[in-house]
């Protein structure tokens, strides 16, 4: 694929794209050769709907209108390219809790033609140092509450500009709104806009490079055609902006639609329910665990403003979907996405939803199930999920590119079944299949059976090596408050699962926990359950 002439003075990111023959096949959505996604999300939305609509809000401050947000973004962009010395193509690390200011910094980096590297506030110095080394980061905008760990990373020549404090070098002093508008850098549609890093829980993290057109593509496919937001919607959710699920759901999608977003860190199910009522949230993005955690706390909370609930990040069990629907009348929009493809690529909404399945390929994407050699498998047979569409995997100078992209398809690492009518049903992560006494057992199927028991609030099922059976099915369970973690409960849970799944799939061992290990983005860390050392 031939790239358009770049507007980047610093060509580090483009120079480290994989060779073209290692790219996935990419669908052309017809974007112009040059576009700046920051300008499209902000300036173009204002031109279409006006500057006085609410854009961003949080718990502590006033609502920012679109016009006020643009004024602040332009002031930050002037500071970036003026006193801070950022040039187009430079990588700018963004770190902090989920706030309007963090979103404004991201938009300013886009308009300035730099490359955003948004990281999690929970990441520790060693992790931050690795990310900065891989992406050659020399500039950072950091919430003053999250500066210490970033400074402690000891990144050579890193210029950290804090925001939210009262120091003379604080970004709020450098970027006071009210000055001249900032003309967005005329970036190429295929200039790198952001580098999103995978969690790195199983090795050195991988930087996934996404273009300016990719940012618009996720809004114009999943959001516009499946989620279908309206300008009066108020978005909110638990995923942080350092997680592409959160960046899309809480910044890109609402701004593309002219809607608003309530930005706050995850404070637990009780606080999220309170926020829904207080701010009349209508579009909610969170993980299956959060929906399940909110269920027993719904009484006394007003969720009548909700009209769209989106779930991703891990598999949504049919039990959780059904329980939420019975309690609220709302149909959760399930979806699977990946950092490598930026956001959701299989999903379904409204009457097209089929509980227990992920859904259909999002318009613009194609999906199929293949074997290890990449050969398509017949419907009903489990295999590897392969996807292609307008976005796809382009790792930053990483040999693992050829593992993820094969023959033009992104191989996500998930085991799926395609049903005869085209729906895709999740089976397990490819490395989460348990082989016990010759049987292939999908951990999520056992989890779904356990979660149907009223005393189970969380469940994770993994395989453990066994001399006689190859692997044993081991269930790690969090119980409802007040339920005793004793032998009687083990027996009751095993008997219950045998009424719902074949006996050979039932857990041979059940281990009780007060909480399951998760990443800062809420993803279950099964590897820690397999090897608890």
From TrEMBL:
Domain AMP-binding enzyme C-terminal: 445-523
Chain coiled-coil ranges: none
Entries under Pfam families matching the protein: AMP-binding, AMP-binding_C
UniProt keyword Transferase present: no
Region Disordered: start-end pairs: 1-24
Keywords of the record: Ligase
Residue span(s) of domain AMP-dependent synthetase/ligase: 48-391
Composition bias, Basic and acidic residues: 1-18
UniProt name for this protein: AMP-dependent synthetase
Record lineage: Bacteria, Bacillati, Actinomycetota, Actinomycetes, Kitasatosporales
């Amino acid at each position: 694929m031939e790239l358009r002439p770049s507007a980047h003075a610093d060509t580090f990111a483009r120079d480290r794209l994989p060779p073209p023959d290692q790219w996935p096949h990419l669908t052309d959505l017809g974007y112009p050769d040059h576009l700046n996604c920051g300008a499209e999300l902000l300036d173009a939305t204002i031109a279409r709907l006006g500057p006085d609509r609410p854009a961003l809000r949080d718990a502590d401050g006033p609502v920012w209108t679109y016009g006020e947000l643009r004024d602040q973004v332009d002031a930050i962009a002037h500071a970036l390219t003026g006193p801070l010395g950022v040039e187009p193509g430079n990588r700018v690390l963004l770190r902090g809790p989920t706030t309007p200011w963090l979103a404004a910094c991201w938009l300013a980096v886009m308009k300035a033609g730099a490359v955003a590297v948004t990281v999690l506030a929970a990441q520790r110095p060693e992790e931050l140092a690795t990310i900065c080394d891989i992406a050659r980061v020399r500039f950072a905008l950091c919430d003053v509450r999250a500066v210490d760990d970033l400074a402690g990373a000891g990144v050579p020549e890193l210029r950290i500009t804090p925001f939210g404090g009262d120091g003379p070098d604080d970004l709020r002093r450098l970027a006071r709104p009210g000055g001249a508008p900032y003309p967005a850098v005329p970036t190429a549609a295929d200039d790198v806009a952001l580098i999103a890093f995978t969690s790195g829980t199983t090795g050195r993290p991988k930087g996934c490079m996404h273009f300016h057109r990719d940012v618009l593509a996720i809004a114009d496919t999943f959001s516009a055609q499946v989620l279908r937001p309206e300008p009066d919607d108020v978005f909110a959710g638990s995923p942080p902006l350092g997680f592409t699920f959160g960046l899309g759901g809480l910044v890109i999608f609402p701004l593309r639609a002219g809607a608003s977003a309530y930005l706050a860190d995850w404070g637990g199910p009780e606080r999220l329910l309170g926020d829904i009522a207080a701010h009349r949230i209508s579009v909610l993005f969170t993980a299956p665990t959060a929906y399940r955690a909110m269920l027993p706390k719904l009484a006394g909370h007003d969720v009548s403003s909700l009209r769209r609930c989106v779930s991703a990040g891990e598999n949504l069990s049919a039990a959780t979907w059904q329980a939420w629907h019975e309690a609220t009348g709302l149909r959760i929009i399930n979806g699977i996405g990946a950092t490598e493809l930026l956001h959701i690529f299989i999903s379904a909404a409204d009457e097209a939803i089929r509980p227990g399945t992920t859904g259909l390929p999002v318009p613009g994407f194609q999906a199929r199930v293949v074997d290890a050699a990449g050969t398509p498998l017949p419907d009903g047979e489990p295999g590897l999920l392969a996807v292609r569409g307008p976005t796809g995997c382009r790792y930053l100078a990483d040999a693992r590119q050829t593992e993820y992209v094969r023959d033009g398809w992104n191989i996500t690492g998930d085991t799926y079944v395609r049903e005869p009518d085209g729906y895709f049903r999740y089976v397990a992560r490819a490395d989460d299949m348990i082989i016990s006494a010759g049987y292939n057992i999908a951990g999520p199927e056992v989890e779904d059976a356990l979660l149907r028991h009223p005393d189970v609030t969380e469940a994770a099922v993994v395989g453990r090596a066994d001399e006689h059976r190859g692997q044993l099915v081991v269930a790690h369970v969090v119980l409802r408050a007040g339920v005793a973690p004793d032998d009687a409960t083990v027996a009751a849970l095993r008997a219950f699962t045998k009424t719902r799944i074949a006996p050979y799939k039932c857990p041979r061992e059940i281990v009780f926990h007060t909480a399951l290990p998760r990443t800062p983005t809420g993803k279950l860390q099964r590897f820690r359950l397999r090897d608890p050392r």
